[in-house]
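Anthranilate phosphoribosyltransferase
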Amino acid sequence: MNTLLNPEPSFSLIPSIRITKTHYLTRRRLQASRQFSSTDGNRLIGRRIRLTVKADLDSALIDQLGLKESDIINPAISSSYRSSKLPKPNQTLLEAQAKVCTGPTQTRPLREDEAFKVLDTILRSAKGDLKDEEEVSKAQLGAFFSAMTIRANAFPEATQWSEGERRAMNTFWPLLMRALSPDVIFIADPEGSIMGGGGSIGPHYSGNDPREMRLVGALREVLAGGHLGYEEVQGVLRDVLPLQLDNKAPGVSESLLSAFLIGQRMNRETDRELKAYCLAFDDELGPPPVADVKSLTHYGEPYDGNTRFFRSTLFVAAVRSCYGESCLLHGAEWMPPKGGVTEEQMLKFMGASTNLSVLQAKELLEDEEIGFAYVSLREARPSLYSLIGLREHIKKRPPVATSEKVQQFVRAQGREAIVAGFYHEGYEEPLLMLMKRRGVHSGLVVKGEEGALSMTTRLRSVNASKGLPVNYCSGFRSLNVESTFEGDGVSRQSFNLEVNASNYGFEPTNTPRTDRSVSKNIELGLAALRGEKGPTYDRIVLNAGMVDHLLGCDGAEDVSVAMDRAREAIDSGKALKRLLNYIKISHKLK
């Protein structure tokens, strides 16, 4: 194959390009602005979506007016897709969680004044005296005290409690002991050894029912910095999920569950723990349907979306479907912590149905005029979907944020591949391990912009952060020829490289900004699919052609041929036509 291994990166400082955000302020204006207009006969585009800007509301004006984006009912920005039914977390504690609910080297101990403020907020909330803020939720208490306990028990000295945190805890703990519930006291001091005084609640706590008993037993190991077996993790997850969101039936303590989830992430999950999260609910709705397609790529974008840069995968899927590379996208309408632009928001904004079952997705994959589909986590895995509210209150990403990217909601009769995005170095190998466990023919992880899948044509800056660069790719392809056999008996070719777009003829350009604007992301993508050349067009071509090449797809052995094939799918109007067909046909499925 013509794969370029580890091409030398180029370095340049590129001035930033400012793109003003445009937003629709009301649903009435939105509906008036979304127009479908027919064109003559067999024109290349056939049908087009015209997005007319009715009002401008950029970030500077929002700040000037003292507004929060989350308070603006505006379907053109990603924050408006957060369900109003979800209770909001306490911001004081959430800011503290962002510092302490993370890994052994990333944790930032609280200053003394911060620790006093946080514990005072917790105490006033527990006593019902918190009048000027959202109350501290059980999930927040579980996550915060789980982090404090793991830091005390298992973290290196630099990220253990600061002297200020210790003084604050010594001051407030006697008061908190009288105000907090037993489950939270257990999380804060499971063995009665952290806070001093030999408290008896933690050592003797066992939970309120058999489900909590299993969870408490597993949590003791997690709070000590330990790890669990595959069956133990799966047993806990299946016991406690889905969460009872309507409060009609008693559910497991949210403080215990949030402590468990963030604790496993802080301890850095083992392969067997991640496999348990990945596979726990595969049979929740029965076996997946099998689509009659020759090739199917499962796209594992981060579910919490993009907040800054253009998100290309929806448009890439429309391109790749034109030449027989079927694509299945999955995700959620809105997901913390970022709450950014997602494929579901874009499809919903354009008028497509986003409530498709996996069987309906199979039909769209098999449709010769479409060839791609999107499945919401809400429809495919209700148990995992029930965690969205809890995840917002945990603040940091739990293990399921990694495992949900490696799913097969529909299978294929032909070859299958999985592509997933990542940001934090060290998660590329676990993601590839999960893909191999899924049994796909090819797997690819991409460090795209914002940890998403979009590779960029931007030159690498001399001020780039340490670690793996943007456009780093790693993966494997299954082979039918003699090669090195891995532990599972499958012959694979592994690879890793940094994709330098200039090596493939692309001019260096800054990535278009969208800044949480759903409408701007759509506007850019549709303009590119109409054949408008520029940075967005180049990114769609690059990501379609490079994925084809790296996955070993038919006809993509030569990367330049793969890029030309993607360009032809756009320039001919076929890709845009398929996207518009999807919007239309998605409502007609039974």
